[in-house]
Design brief:
Length: about 260
């Protein structure tokens, strides 16, 4: 990286928006500026009809080392800490609430808020060298905000083990516990992530938006309420032109032409 290089790279191609963390010398630590850049990019993506899928990637040997500790110590005031963690929580929530699916492409270490970033994405592919950890306990700072996303992605016992010990978890173990969807060779990580993103992007954008929002909302509901809500969503989906087109295309054995309505 050279002075003046953007800390977040953005590329939109064929409906796939790739957002690349670009602070490799700082192990892509989430500075306030980088979080702001991500928030702005996600806000623009949410309003775009061109973006079908978002891929979150990173340059350098590490995916993300969490918060920028040097920046945090430069202003350790109560107001600064409150603003920092509020901003981070807002960013993670925005990933979940983004209309489009988000795929994390993870190489190297993803620690603390970097692990939180992966857990907050809808899907994640990891290179076989990837490692995940919530090591805040080792420096006297429990990973409380990463805990929110982690505990929703993996089982309670594994989440607490990671939080209590800070020990890193291999890509294979992360797959076993549901933190990532697949582990692939580092050399093919980008290509396989693109292939998954293209496969999802080929689906109806309306259906993906409805489905993603419904998935996260029903998770917080009691069973009966979840079924009532899901039934209403499915009925709404059935009334859409894309659903009629998709069913007709299936019956007629032809490719569907999505209009997003």
């Amino acid at each position: 990286m050279t002075p003046g290089d953007p800390i977040l790279l953005s590329r939109l191609q064929d409906g796939l928006l790739t957002l690349t963390l670009n602070r490799p010398d700082a192990r892509n630590a989430l500075s306030r500026a980088l979080m702001s850049a991500l928030e702005d990019a996600l806000e623009q993506a949410a309003a775009s009809s061109e973006v079908r899928v978002v891929v979150l990637a990173a340059n350098g040997p590490a995916f993300c080392a969490g918060h920028d500790l040097r920046e945090m110590r430069a202003d350790p005031s109560l107001a600064s800490c409150e603003a920092l963690f509020t901003q981070c929580s807002r960013l993670m929530t925005r990933l979940v609430r983004l209309p489009q699916p988000v795929i994390a492409r993870v190489q190297g270490m993803a620690t603390a808020a970097g692990c939180q970033l992966v857990a907050s994405c809808d899907l994640a592919l990891a290179g076989d060298s990837a490692r995940f950890a919530t090591p805040g306990v080792a420096i006297g700072l429990f990973c409380s905000t990463p805990m929110v996303a982690l505990s929703r992605a993996v089982g309670r016992k594994k989440a607490l083990e990671m939080l209590f010990t800070g020990h890193p978890v291999s890509a294979a173990e992360a797959l076993t516990h549901g933190l990532v969807n697949a582990v692939v060779p580092d050399a093919t990580l980008e290509a396989e992530t693109q292939a998954l993103a293209r496969e999802i992007a080929a689906k109806s954008p309306l259906t993906l938006r409805l489905g993603k929002a419904a998935f996260y909302r029903q998770l917080e509901m009691p069973l009966d309420d979840a079924y009532a809500y899901a039934s209403a969503i499915m009925t709404r989906n059935m009334m859409a032109e894309d659903a009629r087109e998709g069913i007709d295309a299936f019956l007629e054995k032809r490719p569907a032409v999505w209009r997003g309505v």
